[in-house]
Amino acid sequence: MPVRSTVWGLLTVLAASQLVPTAAYAQYGRSPGAFNRGNRYKDFVPGPAMRGPNAVNPEHEKIKRAAQEAYRKHDFKRAIELVEPILKQKPKDAVGLHIRGSAKIELGLREGNVETVRQGIADARESVTEGAKNGGGAAYYIPYLHGMIALAKLEGRKEHATVAIDIAQQVLELDDLKFTEKANLRFQRARAYTFLGEFEKAAGEYEKAIEIDDSHVNAYVALANAYAKAEKHDKALEAFNTACEAFENSALLFNNRGTYLRTQGKMDEAVADFGRAVEIDSQFVVGYINRGYTLMQLGRPAEAEKDFDKVAELAPERRNINEFRSQARIAQGKLQAGIEDIQKVTAAFPKYAKGHANLGFAQYFAGDFEAAKKAFDTAVDLDPSMKHLETWRLLCRIELDEMQDLDKQFPDTFAKPADKRDWVDNLVLYLGNELTAEELLAVIDTKDEKRADQQKCEAHFVVSRKLAKLGETDKAQEELAKVLGCKATHLSAYRAAQFLTGKFDVAEKPTDAVIN
Q: What is the DSSP string of 111-124?
């Protein structure tokens, strides 16, 4: 079983999604303000009907424009609220249905709500029918196609994506399509192929979309991603480079190329791209998050802290920013400031298990074992799957001299036969005096070099704690030196060893209390 990364591994999970634009523009392939080549897509909805039952009503058009603006700002609930009265009066209003359908699909995606997506698809389907009665174009099909792809993702059903591909092909065969409609239809077909794992077909469709409309910024990004998934990394980077040259003032593109470069291990180049993104747009929150995260990976927490400070200034409502900044601060030895950041998270989100776990680690580093034990116990109560915390709960109990009845506190672990134990079980059994240090080190998985290094890091740390409790200080320090000799710098065991020894990988030394 792989070693579970604790507090430091959380950052990777949270930052992994920092690609833009969000799903709100997956339908149309462009994010207003993201590039500077003349945005030819001022409206995401078809123009108002000039005849028939959907003929222009000036007041309704004003409301629909406001709904459109709410959609642009990702306020999907507001967009729906604005068009509802219109649709009560005119249930067949094609543009109103188009807006409500688009907003419901995005809202359903955001919330993972299949029923809301289905409602959006129903609206989109009806908007196609009503739009056709009044000379509407292929633009009415886009939310329907996007909705079917969204449904495929949420339900894991390939047939929905296949329907989207077939419908897009049928619409592409219609006469008198606008170039924007052709490009967006190709874009949707490509997204469906991507879901199906047919990445080369997807790349072909994205290339055709770009040939039709060379300002289709999302097609460039998606093309690069398709090549990356097809493991054609030279072509992926070429696509990103072409896009960044074509849209040299696009914060979005530099951010996404930086994210790709980071996955390829080109960390310094990624930092440069994120820097370019925030230079283009000083309010670009995701760029600061990504640069800060990457700087943390590079062992530059002081610089990362400055980026996270900027995010806290621009978007204080983001829950993860206090988590990120706490890690940057703790990595520099600013323990109390890091604890205060995490406490803001647990106060605002008391049911957030990982927040309590991270608070427990910081309090353990500070030597407040009673508080750490309480935080770890709360985390496990909220999320029983966080088994890796068993080791830390037991470490706290050792420090507090609460080692009685361990078999009752961890009954499953103590009852397991040797061939059924995982790594956490072995750590707990060692701390509970059921295994010797030699026996613990002997069960390290040596087949995987990275995993072995992580397990050695944790093994030497728990051995050091038992030795320290027995008063064997010199031997405990020798074990801590072995911890710091490991490469698993993201593990909480490594971080705890830094606080115990006062040896940090940054210029600034700890300014707060450490464990004695």
A: HT-HHHHHHHHHHH
Q: What is the model's pTM?
A: 0.71
Q: Evaluate whether 390 touches 428 at the Cβ level (below 8 Å).
A: yes
Per-run averaged pLDDT (10 residues), the chain, 516 residues: 31 33 42 32 50 66 91 90 94 92 92 93 91 78 92 93 93 86 91 92 91 85 87 90 89 92 94 97 95 93 96 87 92 92 93 95 95 96 93 93 75 82 92 92 93 96 94 95 93 93 60 36
Q: Is the peptide bond before 21 cis (omega within 30 degrees of 0)?
A: yes
Q: How far is CA 72 from the centre of its chain?
A: 21
Determine contact, residues 82/68, Cβ cutoff 8 Å.
no
Q: How many CB atoms lie within 10 A of CB 442?
A: 11
Residue labelled with tokens 């068009």: 83
How many Å apart are CA 140 and CA 41, to the nearest integer? 15
Question: Residues 149, 124: contact at Cβ < 8 Å?
Answer: no
Structure tokens of 237? 């980077």
Q: Is the peptide bond before 53 cis (omega within 30 degrees of 0)?
A: no
Rounded-to-integer distance, Cα 285 and Cα 278, Å: 8
Q: What gap in Å lies between CA 283 and CA 340, rounded to an integer? A: 25
Distance CA 187, CA 151 (A): 17
**Nearest alpha carbon to residue 289 among 281, 278, 302:** 278
- Phi/psi at 182 (5° precision): -60, -45
What is the maximum span of the chain, computed from C-alpha positions, in angstroms? 90
* Distance (Å) of CA 213 to CA 141, 180, 197, 321: 18, 7, 25, 37
Displacement of CA 177 from its chain's centroid (Å) = 37
Q: What is the pLDDT of residue 490?
A: 86
- The pLDDT of residue 293: 94
